[in-house]
Amino acid sequence: MIRVVTLDPIDDKQLAKFNRTLYTAFGVGSEHSGSAEIPAGMSEPLDAEKLVDAVKGIRAYTDDKVLLLTTRKLKDRELPSGTAPTVGFARQGKDRAVLSIHPHKDLESAYKGLARHALHQLGHLWELHHCLDPRCSMYPPWTPSFSQGEPIFCTFCREKSEQKIRLAKS
Amino acid sequence: MPEGSAALQLAVGDRVVYPNQGVCRVTAIDVKEVAGQKLTFVTMRREEDGAVVMVPEAKVVAIGVRKVATAEDVERIYAFLRSDSDKADLDWKQRARTNLDRMTQGGILGLAEVVKALQVLSELRPLPTKERELYDSARHLLVSEVAAALGTAEVNAEDSIDIVLFPPGRERPKRTAAEFARPDGEDGDMDLDGDLMGLDGGELDLPSEEEAPAEPEENAEGEGEGEESEESASDESAPKKRGRPPKAKPAEGEAPAAPKKRGRPPKPKPEVVSTEPPPPPKKRGRPPKPKPPESETAAPAAPKKRGRPPKVKPPEGE
Lengths: 170, 318
Fold this sequence. Notes:
The complex is a heterodimer.
Chain A: E1 2-6, H1 12-26, E2 30-35, H2 48-54, E3 65-70, E4 77-79, E5 82-84, E6 88-90, E7 96-100, H3 111-125, H4 155-169
Helix pairs in contact in A: 1-3
Chain B: E1 15-18, E2 22-34, E3 37-46, E4 52-56, H1 60-63, E5 66-67, H2 71-82, H3 92-105, H4 107-122, H5 129-150, H6 154-165, H7 177-180, H8 215-221, H9 227-236, H10 294-297
Antiparallel strand pairs in B: 1-2, 1-5, 2-3, 3-4
Helix pairs in contact in B: 2-4, 3-4, 4-5, 5-6
């Protein structure tokens, strides 16, 4: 089950559409599971790694995947080989991811790109790596063409995610 | 022999890399008696999922177990991935063999070489399934080792690799087969030219190229994935054409010769003309059963009853 938790107010209709897209991509249920507070002391731009760990009060089962949605900007990560533009963050194989819709005010204004980013982060939660196919949502998200594509997976990534989901269920 | 494993001294708690399996931690080194022999076994637990493997100490180096790479090694990996020197091998058999060696014996640099080579190849054409799986496996091992070496999360390790492979703000270039062509003009077709096999085009009565489809070439190429794309790529690079050179066209005044028919020539027909009507064509299959004479058919036999025959009743007097 994918649980979308909002950290800032977002329109319910848009969230319903967003959940349908996630359901179509992964074949598992997706729902808006309420909202949560950003911990005090965290200022914009938010540190995605800390945010994922720090948000409290989310109820989910063990095999659920939680996607935190915020309208605030996330801080780019400094990595040994350079700076990684950060729209979202998810630890490989874990159960929480965060996605920022910044600089957009709502989901609708850049729907495809945001849905694609959401698929990307949730894909990491199901242990998918970056993909070579530019049409796939697991393609590195900082490439210029990423936001223009459809929120879909390539055959390889889809099969791998389905396999991981099956394993999680069994 | 893999790099860094020439003098491998392991102790409990060390982090090592088991080829094709990933980062493991040595959990025990103990002596066990197997078939009357006392052997020292190194027990390793894979960090990813906790799978345990025991290896005789004498075989640790031969298997390719090595220490986890250092931060300096990772810097060298970034430099290698950043360079544009790697060209993919278009010969799939050669590529598969090389990649297998790199995965098992090449150390972290071998993993990076596989990732880089397949990524470069994917800029020319989509990878076949097996190579896509190999790419994913190599990437997974590379990411987990870089994460272990730098002490960071796997997602950060992967992003740090991909920032180098896919620089932000830039699209991947489209490659052409000409970029991968070797300088000596080889096209990676195993070098099995006609003269090497002792076949001269003029000695055999082979059908001309217009008649023969591409299938004999595919068969000669061997089985395996991606061979079609292999050929198409080699066509793009305008390699040497194999087989018989095209026939010279006939002069304009001559009538074009009828195309040769393939296969066995037809049998010559007998020239004797007989006036008898031709025998009816033979029916194929099992001949019909001969019908019994009519007198026998007057009393048709009762249909056979199926199942076990009834028991013979004992005579009443007994």
